[in-house]
Every structure is written in structure tokens, then in C-alpha cells.
Amino acid sequence: MLVELRVGIAALFLWLVSTRMKKSLSLSSHWRHYLIIGVVNSALPFLLFAYAAGTLSASLLSILNSTAPIFGAVVASIWLRTPMDRSTIIGLIIGMCGVGLLVGSNVSIHGDNPWLPLIAGLGAPLCYGIASTYTKANAVKLDPFNNAHGSLWMATLINLPMAFAAPPIHNPTMVDWAAATGLSVLCTGFAYLLYFRLIEDVGPMRALTVTFLIPVFGVLWGTLFLGEPVGWNLLIGGVMILLGTGLANGVLRFSGTHPVISEKG
Fold first, then answer.
1. CA–CA separation, 195 vs 1, rounded Å?
2. pLDDT for 184-238, tens place per residue?
3. How much is the pLDDT for 207?
4. Pair type for strands 252-255 and 258-261
5. Three-state SS at 156
6. Which end of the chain is more exposed for a tag (fewer CB within 10 A), N or C?
7. What does the pLDDT read at residue 38?
8. Domain ranges of the chain
């Protein structure tokens, strides 16, 4: 239900903006395009994260989310035939080693059956990598606003049956509604406008570099508000993923034997 509220309210917000701007979605011509982005970039990853959050900590989920640029580099390399240089290959190796460290340590921590939540937590950023590459590869003369607006309506429709199949256990309070509205308008509707503009201007891999900030705030809020412990595996694995991500998408480059900040980054 939270996923449905998130995409639904965000879609309504962008609809209000579109009426003000007098922008048409051209739904009859581009509904398949909106449907693909809506499923892969919103409905499916949001559901995967919601499922994983029932078992995994917010800190771990935020770090797993930051692997999106790594998946984006791999998908773009295969789909768009983007060549991989030495820095990209080294970054992918380091990032995947960081993922392996986090997954391995958390399997032992959670015991029983943590594999499905961990796979879900990695499946969501994989979806982001696929969606961003698809958007770049299938430019259909739609601006970033229409990509955001149309995809959110499709995500709302796709997720609607599942929202009613799993209703909230407790009645939402006013604070819950305020939080859901903020998540929808600021973190989804407005953020998607910026995100699709980045894909158009700088490409899918660089657009995904915004995920660098997610682990920082995810671990911080998890520690402050949820009392989640920060172990050595979380810190080392997180640093490895961020380093690997920076190398994989060109923010960092190897000069000689040392990584340096790229001029483009």
C-alpha cells in the first residue's frame, strides 16, 4: 500500500504540474514506453525493496541500493555496447567484492532464510540499471517530464491489485500520511524530473551516481532513528561498493597505480 501511495500521489502531483504547463502525455502513442519504465524503474524495484525491508536493516538496504551504477555499467556495456576500460573493470570487481562481503556476512547474521531478501535488495538496483539504459537507448522524442509523469501512472496501475491484496495492518496516522506525501512529492515526483533530465543530459551511468549519497544518509538515519548497529563488514563493504561504483562509471580513474578524481566527475 505504501508503494501504491508513493507512485500514485507522485503521479497526481505531476498531473497537476502538467495541467499548469499544458503538457500532453500522448498516451495512445507511447503507453508501451511508459509501461516498461513504470514497471522496471518504479513498481518492481519499490516492491522488491519493500519485501527486503521486512528482513534487512535500512543501513544494509541503502548500501545495496548504491550498486545501481555498477549494474548500470554492466547493462550499458551489453546493451549500448559501451566499451569498458581498465578503471571500469577494476571498479566492477571491487564493487562486486563489496557486495559479496555484505551478502556473506549478513547471511550468517540473519540465519534461517535471508537469501530471498538479499536477492530482492540487489534486484531493485539491477532494475534501475536496466531502466536507465532502456530510457537512453529508446529515446522516443519525449522530454524528461513526460517520462517521469507517464511512467508513474503506469506504475500506479500495475501495483494497484497488489496494494489491495496486502492492506496495512494498522490504520495510518496523520504523521504516516504526511511522511507518505513527502516521500511521494519530493522523493519521487520531483526527484524523477531531475533523474530523467540527468539521463538525457549525461547518460544512464552518470545519472545513477546520485546513489553515492544514499548509503551516507541511509546508515546515518538507520543509526540515529532505528538504533541499527554499524559493524566493520557494513563499513568496509560499503566503502568497497562506493569505490567500485566511482571507478565503474568514471567519477574516479586510475592514473598509474592510484585512483584519482576524473575531470568529468
1. 24
2. 999 899 888 887 777 777 665 566 666 667 777 888 888 888 888 777 777 888 7
3. 62
4. antiparallel
5. helix
6. C
7. 95
8. 2-261
Please return the burial class of 50, using the count of CB atoms within 10 Å of its CB with bins 0-12, 13-18 and 19+: middle
Grid cell 532464510 — which residue?
A: 113
Amino acid making up residue 26: S
CB atoms within 10 A of CB 257: 5
Q: How many CB atoms lie within 10 A of CB 26?
A: 15
Query: 199 is written with which cell numbers?
Result: 539521463
The angle formed by the CA atoms of residues 216, 9 and 20, to the nearest 5 degrees, is 110
Of 29, 20, 13, 10, nearest to 141 by C-alpha is 29
Please, is 161 exposed, middle or buried when counting C-beta atoms within 10 Å of its C-beta (0-12, 13-18, 19+)? exposed
- The predicted pLDDT at position 37 comes to 93
Record the cell numbers describing residue 123, joined without a space: 534486484
